[in-house]
Amino acid sequence: MPLRSAKDYVASLRDGRTVYFRGQRVEDVTTHPVIGVAVRHASIDYEMAEQPAHRALAVVADEDGREFSRYYQIPRASDDLLQRSALIETATAAGATLVVLIKEIGTDALVALMRVASVVDAARRTEYARRVEAFYQHCRSKDLAVAVAQTDVKGDRALGPSAQADPDLYLHIVERRSDGIVVRGAKAHTSVSTNANELIVLPTRAMGEADRDYAVSFAVPVATKGLILLASAYDSTGPQSHAAEHPISARHKMMETTTVFDNVFVPWERVFLAGEHEFAGPLALAFVEHHRFTAVSYKLPLVDALIGSAMLMADLNGVAKAGHVREKIVQLISYGETLRGLTHYAALRATPRELGIAVPDPLYVNMAKYHFAHGYHEAVRNVQDIAGGSLVTGPGAEDLVSAETAPYYERYYAGRAGISGKDRLKALSVVKDLVASEFATYQEVLAVHAEGSLEAEKLMLFRSYDPKPALTFVRGLAGLL
Amino acid sequence: MPLRSAKDYVASLRDGRTVYFRGQRVEDVTTHPVIGVAVRHASIDYEMAEQPAHRALAVVADEDGREFSRYYQIPRASDDLLQRSALIETATAAGATLVVLIKEIGTDALVALMRVASVVDAARRTEYARRVEAFYQHCRSKDLAVAVAQTDVKGDRALGPSAQADPDLYLHIVERRSDGIVVRGAKAHTSVSTNANELIVLPTRAMGEADRDYAVSFAVPVATKGLILLASAYDSTGPQSHAAEHPISARHKMMETTTVFDNVFVPWERVFLAGEHEFAGPLALAFVEHHRFTAVSYKLPLVDALIGSAMLMADLNGVAKAGHVREKIVQLISYGETLRGLTHYAALRATPRELGIAVPDPLYVNMAKYHFAHGYHEAVRNVQDIAGGSLVTGPGAEDLVSAETAPYYERYYAGRAGISGKDRLKALSVVKDLVASEFATYQEVLAVHAEGSLEAEKLMLFRSYDPKPALTFVRGLAGLL
Amino acid sequence: MPLRSAKDYVASLRDGRTVYFRGQRVEDVTTHPVIGVAVRHASIDYEMAEQPAHRALAVVADEDGREFSRYYQIPRASDDLLQRSALIETATAAGATLVVLIKEIGTDALVALMRVASVVDAARRTEYARRVEAFYQHCRSKDLAVAVAQTDVKGDRALGPSAQADPDLYLHIVERRSDGIVVRGAKAHTSVSTNANELIVLPTRAMGEADRDYAVSFAVPVATKGLILLASAYDSTGPQSHAAEHPISARHKMMETTTVFDNVFVPWERVFLAGEHEFAGPLALAFVEHHRFTAVSYKLPLVDALIGSAMLMADLNGVAKAGHVREKIVQLISYGETLRGLTHYAALRATPRELGIAVPDPLYVNMAKYHFAHGYHEAVRNVQDIAGGSLVTGPGAEDLVSAETAPYYERYYAGRAGISGKDRLKALSVVKDLVASEFATYQEVLAVHAEGSLEAEKLMLFRSYDPKPALTFVRGLAGLL
Amino acid sequence: MPLRSAKDYVASLRDGRTVYFRGQRVEDVTTHPVIGVAVRHASIDYEMAEQPAHRALAVVADEDGREFSRYYQIPRASDDLLQRSALIETATAAGATLVVLIKEIGTDALVALMRVASVVDAARRTEYARRVEAFYQHCRSKDLAVAVAQTDVKGDRALGPSAQADPDLYLHIVERRSDGIVVRGAKAHTSVSTNANELIVLPTRAMGEADRDYAVSFAVPVATKGLILLASAYDSTGPQSHAAEHPISARHKMMETTTVFDNVFVPWERVFLAGEHEFAGPLALAFVEHHRFTAVSYKLPLVDALIGSAMLMADLNGVAKAGHVREKIVQLISYGETLRGLTHYAALRATPRELGIAVPDPLYVNMAKYHFAHGYHEAVRNVQDIAGGSLVTGPGAEDLVSAETAPYYERYYAGRAGISGKDRLKALSVVKDLVASEFATYQEVLAVHAEGSLEAEKLMLFRSYDPKPALTFVRGLAGLL
Hints:
4 copies of one chain form a homotetramer. With 481 residues, chain A is of the alpha+beta class. Chain A is 47% helix and 14% strand. Chain A is built from 16 helices and 14 strands. Chain A has helices spanning 6-12, 35-42, 44-50, 52-58, 78-94, 104-124, 128-142, 280-298, 300-317, 323-348, 362-387, 406-412, 421-435, 438-449, 454-464, 468-478; strands at 18-21, 24-25, 59-61, 67-69, 146-149, 172-176, 180-191, 198-201, 216-221, 227-231, 256-267, 271-274, 351-352, 358-359. In chain A, strands 2-1-10-11-7-6 form a 6-stranded mixed β-sheet, with no helix packed on it. A 4-stranded mixed β-sheet of chain A has the order 5-8-9-12. Chain A has a two-stranded antiparallel ribbon with strand order 3-4. In chain A, strand 13 (351-352) and strand 14 form a beta hairpin. In chain A, helix 6 packs antiparallel against helix 7 (128-142), helix 8 runs parallel beside helix 11 (362-387) and helix 11 packs antiparallel against helix 15 (454-464). The radius of gyration of chain A is 24 Å and the shape is globular. The N and C termini of chain A lie far apart (62 Å). The interface between A and B is large, with 88 and 88 residues.
């Protein structure tokens, strides 16, 4: 079976799924003025597989010569991870700094499920591994787009699932039937769900005995009965704006949903965890081990864009040689390239885990992610600083075509000798979209929260560190061995 | 003559001024869907003078008992500056963190003009002081709204005014006539000009002999022939949005313009500097000495709102006692209150300068401003961190009234016990407007650029510091006196 | 009774006190090669009272015209606190950045005892206030040097006093007799005890019912039976070094002791708390409220010295105009002057508390202290950066007088034109003592630990902040009032 | 010829070299109370080659089976660099965080000379390459210890060599003879020169036409006539102290000299650059390209020791689980491991340059070095914070053996249950030596200045960055390609 075309992918989304946007049911996500932008953005993944320049990176073949998307390749060694990282980075650059994610996140969940299912089966004589494998083959052979719902809506963040005032604030099993389970609750921040084919559900945290019914993992087609996608209203302006004004966000969009499970039935064949509470934590963790590596890979075009923005604006404004500008650019380079170095080094230090699946070194992945997240706002400040106040006081798209205003803007927004106002305004528009727009704060909040918070990264960094060498060294110096 | 009412103020703006917004001429700024929001926001100043709670702060009387706006009071001592600071802080809080500015900035320019005019007159036998005084009495007695245009569009930032490829990239005198001067060029980032009555023009930097024609200062009514206001298109979404979605920016707006002077004639009576190039720098500096004190005063409600946002969201989310949340709140408090302390201390250390005008200690003002500007993005990150990812994945205004979606949002956005989804969403909307919206990045860019860049603040801080005590102390310790 | 002379002060220390230094009993602290330096440093306080330049600051008179040291003046208003701060700053500058402390800390303890004794007496019908007042009059009229022992040795820092494996790890009452109490245990880090006349003991933390016997406060002469002072061996090199090599630490020294109470008897007249455990916390806190203000006051000459060092070395090395050097000096100025501003502002915002005693605003005091402590190492790095590697590769005192080596050093350590090697080496010696010596790390550790740790400062900062205004502001914006 | 023994190495230093310490001629460096410690420390390199555990790492063989020190292996690929880095790290750990350096720095200079000599020869028909190769074989076959003198004393840092008031402030050729050259001047901060066999001299910076005579490179035996080593007096206490008090610095020492060339004659065979001024910059740069990689490799045990110190003291003090302690340990781990990751990644990205010599990626090397240097003081602060104030108020070595004081210290310095005062004091001594001693500030200053300043690292980082990808990406987004 050949890989799907972008056209087929788009067509597959017209399946009667239940999506709401700003209070109204969306009949066809592919033609919706906002969600349609997200669909076209997601198509990048299918288009890359068809482009000669990217085919070698995007497509691999199995031993029988059957081609499939490289995203679906199970990583066995550092090089697989580096290739995967390169693919994610390339696709995100094609997405103008915005990750595509419709296969990235799903395959992170699939390898996590493979790893943990093998452990649960061994401990409990369950048959989860077979089901996961079957679902994996289904997705890979049909070249599907897959979303993942993990974070519950959570209510009181200081309390666990079963301790909430409302039992539905974490997703849970409300009925076990002979043919499957029925689940209820809601997941927050589910990315790309409006334009995925399948939705994988994972537990959000470690759970105790009392949380048994909350220890649940499964997969359902998006157009499943009772599955309700409440699309985010955030930044609905960008996608409906002129590309001249929002060169990135008018064309690229990721859509999140609050994902409601209103008594959704899941057949056993699609259930991957159902009550084995002590494996909820390991499954959540295994997903994160892969997904944070995806995260640091897809942040690379964004940090490159910040560096490039600062250098470009410094040049156009004629201040490239000013000492303080140089200093800020050095800070940006150091910020961006440290991310790249730690990311690649994490892949190079990968170790094989369950089923021989290669896992990037979690210490370095989490250091990379924390480095990115902690420094992002300062990087943005440096770009805003170099770009200048015109980021927020300049013209709109219409100003640049109006006979009455365009001549003034073209003249008075000129930069250093040789730089026309027109060109400088084009550069300003991109930089504005990156660091001074609703899309810009979307990126800020993603930096802090997506794929785990700063605190989650620090905790995992701490746990991944082997304290013995350093402690033994100091104890030895002190004569305390 | 009594103070103007808000109604009179609004009416005064219907005067045939030349304003463009998104390529189209604006017939009436007061009814325009975007600029009208800025007009209503500016009216806060006139409303406060009528409110019993604020009247004592907002209005003062001269020795003859004639009342006038406190903004027009010439500061003679620390207490005048503290009262002015309190008025600015109170008005900005009424503006929901957005400064009103229609009198703040104009009076900063007026006292600077008074100070420098007295010096120029003494050196050059000019009669600028008398003209400035007359213009001041005109503005004060008519209770006018006054904008200030200072920053030129600048072209190559590494070159001075007369060295630019296009001579009009800095505003300059193109003709000296018996009755006045004719000027041409453009100023960038002119705040509140669309809704001011008068526009004061100041030079943007120190100038040399070759820049004589660029050393120009004057005032004109906004509805002057040849004066063209190109309104910024930035964040035109917020003002046209629902207040439920953008509780601040749907109601509050500051409008900047690219301000074009297309051969504008200025009568001599309104000219305050015309060729005395060695006073361009002192005038620019004097303005900044007063205006940065205004700046740090009006930032106080914004930093309070960040602290309050973090505390409120921590409480609603049930994490107020978590160690890392506490740590971030401490950082926010320290950030905000250090600003307050340095601001007030600068006023307390004020010294009298030309004409006995009290000038806040520039060392402390610039430290306060730099502290604010340098730390703003980190403060925003801390608020985003505590508020959570729902900042960018939540509902729109319509979702909260739709029968199909509202019940889900109300249920699943609940916080800790006792906190309904409805209330938590209200809080999230305000916090989103503050730290995750186009308005939010407007505040970020203003932090970095308004009233002078980080580098400008550092330079002035350095120059304001008296190195003698510290140097003498160390030299003494070294036996090098 | 006149104020004591420095000579009388020194003589008063020859009283048979039990002091050990490097394992040996010290017969006379005043002639000891290390502790003697601390004694001479402490004499600064008595010398200032005799110097015309400082007398007005150092000495005040009561209503009957009797003169006493200003340190003993009970603060009643902001101005008293500002004068006290100025005295501490001046004395510390005379101490070449090292605080004198022999009256500063004792009077901080005395006002804290006055405040809390009045509360305990009211609640428990005790007579502590009278005893404290009598002891205060004793110290003041005799112009005594007073040390304070507060921090217990503590053992397991995660456990309270009565929960320790060894009950003596916190000082406690082991016997209550008709004529007084007997105490046992040890206090750590007791400053200036070797050269004080009296020692005040305060509880180190809040205590519970089980800790009753640990809730103890009293004062004893240093030469009391059973009181054993184990002098710190730290930085015993500096005081025994050449002043040419260690211009500060060869002449100035503060001595700490591990202070052992080996069944020390205290008569009731000198007991200020004995079992009233709920007042241990308030007493510890009251002391800190005054003592941290002392701390931020005495840090001012140190930060001035850092600023001056950077400016001086930049000048001598010929790099005063380099952009990065300017930047680092700006950071140092901002660091130092923010400390000064917050310190003075804290005094200006003082409020009267028990007995009308003026307490500096704890929010600002703690922000000042935290600002100092958190930024100190970065400030040191900036000074080391500008001063250059010669800090740690240069000559010793003997090299500069040896006929064989001095000529080389004088020639090759020359700075910019006009700066001889001799003079540059003098400057380098002072800067080395400040930022690259055992004395330098003493200052680093003091920055972090003295008068409370960074965490203690953050906690008190948090508790001193009134959250209502900010919370109400944000709730109002959200419609949640 | 076999590798030298440590004994032979020590013996080789008794060669009549001219060394002064504190103004006096040192007859025998190997028995000197301070320099002797440096000699024994340097012996680690020779000892490792004899130890079974380290032999495989420390020794390699050429194609003829002749063994030589791995330091002398010319790197041809990433793996050579990783092995070299591992050797440096291991030796420095054996040196208790202090680099050995007697072969590290010399071989960095040798490969730089090889690379640049080949370029100079090609351009100028010189025969430098042959001479360098001969000198290399001499050093390698005799297993010599080699120091490098690069940094001139410099006088006015804003002026170049030939612009100084005194022409000798940079080392220069004063005579060209048929058999060689005569040089005069002085180099600062020459490490390990007192205990090296040979001294290589390199130019310190790029030079212009006027600086021809300053563009000089050569090698001489340390015991050369006119070569005068003025040993640093810095931290001469540690090496003469008790190991119980300074467990590191009593046993380990690196000695720097101000190295005076008083008309030193160098035969042509040992001259590697003499007037070819345009190659002074490239040679200085090539050295730094290798030497900064050495630097980041040898910093690894130091950062490990900081992490280990914090973890150990947190454990002994009973506060390992406190939130703020955890946070500081996470910061330390992230700091240290980012250095390790960037260092190794720089080796993995090495590229072959002149003669196929592998050069570590300078972008990553400089980012690693800057990361280390910029963050070092904050790391020290975190360790001081966790270790506690006892770092500077505790006992000396004699206190722990005195019958009168030891019992008190052993009792009152106990830590959490099970941790005796004796053991806690041992740990405190090591941590004190690392972060609160003259040795500690030596490490601070080295962090900032050794192998190039922070500014030098930033400059090289900036120049090593390829701006094209990021610029092209942003230009593409803006439609400006």
